[in-house]
């Protein structure tokens, strides 16, 4: 894809997710979520992006399996468009949080978005490491359940069967598609050190380091919130009986 196509795809993506965000506000909203309508719209938009990207990322390797053998040079227009679309989403989400959320509440996500936009931007502009970027987007398979979890909590369904099932799937996909994928990407970067220019290696290393820290912190929060706390409550009930 040429530079003009990258700019067009990214711009259309920003516009699309802005429309999704605005469209969510027109849909019925759970009463408990009305207290924080902006957050509900933001999470709903993120859910749509994750759902689209999760399917698209899998299709990229299904339609162009050669890309799995060469994550540096080999890619398709289909996969290049996916990375460009995701850049548009992250730009849209970044602006939404800057305008509607307090900095002390969202600085971690904002920093994450800056790193992702920089790394993905380098990839689409140089037409290199597109395959590596698509592998990174495989984490969106877990994000589908992660965002659904947030929506269920905001809707007041944190004790429902659906929430419990989603929590199990969320934690399982977290390990497979976030922790394992990140570990594989880090290993790949180290093994291919001689084939990766210094700038790309530095961007990749910084990106992996940021993702590793954020993923470990989030995993601990999810484990404590959805499993350890519930176990503690159950133990207290048994002691009271």
Structure overview:
It is a single chain. This protein is an all-alpha fold and about 240 residues long. It is built from 8 helices and no strands. α1 (about 5-25) crosses α2 and α4 (about 105-125) runs antiparallel to α8 (about 200-240). The longest helix is centred in the C-terminal third of the chain and has 43 residues, at about 200-240. The radius of gyration is 19 Å and the shape is globular. Residues about 230-240 have low confidence and may be disordered.
Estimate what percentage of residues fall within beta strands. Answer: under 5%
How are helices and strands ordered from N to C?
HHHHHHHH
Biggest sheet features: none
User: What's the overall geometry?
Assistant: globular
Mean pLDDT over the residues: 89
Q: Which residue ranges are poorly predicted, with pLDDT under 50 across at least 5 consecutive positions?
A: 231-241
Look at the helices and sheets and give the structural class. mainly alpha
- Indicate the percent of residues in helices: over 70%
Amino- and carboxy-terminal Cα gap: 67 Å
Task: Figure out the total of helices.
Answer: 8
Q: Report the strand count.
A: 0
Rounded to the nearest angstrom, the radius of gyration is 19 Å
What's this entry about, in short?
The chain is mainly alpha-helical and 241 residues long. It has helices spanning 3-24, 37-63, 77-100, 103-126, 130-136, 140-154, 161-191, 198-240.
């Amino acid at each position: 894809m040429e530079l003009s196509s990258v700019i067009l795809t990214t711009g259309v993506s920003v516009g699309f997710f802005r429309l999704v965000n605005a469209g969510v506000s027109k849909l019925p909203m759970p009463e408990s979520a009305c207290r924080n309508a902006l957050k509900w719209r933001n999470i709903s938009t993120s859910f749509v992006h994750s759902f689209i990207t999760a399917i698209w990322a899998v299709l990229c390797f299904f339609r162009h399996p050669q890309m799995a053998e060469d994550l540096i040079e080999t890619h398709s227009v289909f996969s290049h468009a996916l990375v460009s679309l995701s850049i548009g989403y992250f730009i849209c989400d970044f602006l939404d949080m800057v305008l509607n959320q307090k900095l002390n509440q969202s600085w971690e996500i904002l920093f994450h978005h800056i790193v992702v936009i920089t790394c993905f931007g380098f990839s689409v502009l140089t037409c290199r490491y597109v395959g590596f970027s698509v592998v990174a987007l495989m984490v969106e398979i877990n994000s589908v359940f992660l965002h659904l979890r947030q929506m269920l909590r905001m809707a007041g369904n944190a004790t429902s069967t659906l929430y419990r099932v989603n929590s199990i799937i969320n934690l399982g996909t977290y390990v497979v598609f976030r922790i394992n994928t990140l570990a594989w990407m880090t290993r790949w970067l180290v093994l291919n050190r001689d084939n990766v220019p210094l700038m790309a290696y530095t961007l990749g290393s910084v990106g992996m380091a940021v993702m590793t820290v954020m993923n470990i912190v989030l995993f601990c929060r999810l484990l404590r919130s959805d499993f350890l706390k519930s176990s503690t409550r159950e133990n207290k009930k048994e002691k009271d009986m």
